């Protein structure tokens, strides 16, 4: 039986709320927009009309996926980040608004070459390169599936970047003016408290080091000096409680002018430092 948009939306909100989805109404509206193939602001004008069979099936499938706690971005297949839309899949970490703090901080630094460690969707690297014409960039990741997504994003955005499979610096040659990373920083004992959207749907290796959450920073800080140009910069995203620990790691490895940057919620989010005397 054909439903109007109003009826389908109301039923979807009830289904998502029963599944424990935090913003059931907002997510249902976004997914109805997706099923109808219209911008979100146009959905309300469609609500009094019967849904086509195709739209009804697409909406039901999307709501079923969301009720299983799959992130909206994975259902849509994309996420807005900085100034662009990036393709996302279950093989990549979902680019988050707080990571834009890292992009903003990096763009205030002097560099014309950048290495992105654990590039995932390529969102950080490609956002930086789009703002710095003529700069060169390399994104590395352990996951070939993630690299494929990053390459797709680079092509879709028309941004030139290189991508390579590498476990941190193992496949990296040469030196860069800037190294950036949003590494796995969630401690193993914190994983159980994550939302199902994160814990069950995003790649585990991009979330946790299976230890104290600082393992990636130890590897990055230890190897960064050999891959930075003189007076080059390292900038990393951190968890809100990790500022002192990561600052200490940088200071012990020869970084100076170390600084913390906060996200829009006022939480420590980025540690950056310049290498060398």
Automatic annotation (TrEMBL):
Keyword Transferase recorded: yes
Signal peptide stretch: none
Domain of life: Bacteria
Residues where substrate binds: 182-185
GO annotation terms (biological process): methylation
Binding site for S-adenosyl-L-methionine: 118-122, 141, 168, 182
Keywords, comma-separated and alphabetical: Methyltransferase, S-adenosyl-L-methionine, Transferase
Record-linked SUPFAM superfamilies: S-adenosyl-L-methionine-dependent methyltransferases
GO MF annotation terms: nucleic acid binding; peptide chain release factor N(5)-glutamine methyltransferase activity
Similarity comment: Belongs to the protein N5-glutamine methyltransferase family. PrmC subfamily.
The protein's role, per its UniProt record: Methylates the class 1 translation termination release factors RF1/PrfA and RF2/PrfB on the glutamine residue of the universally conserved GGQ motif.
Protein name (database record): Release factor glutamine methyltransferase
Taxonomic source organism: Paracoccus alkenifer
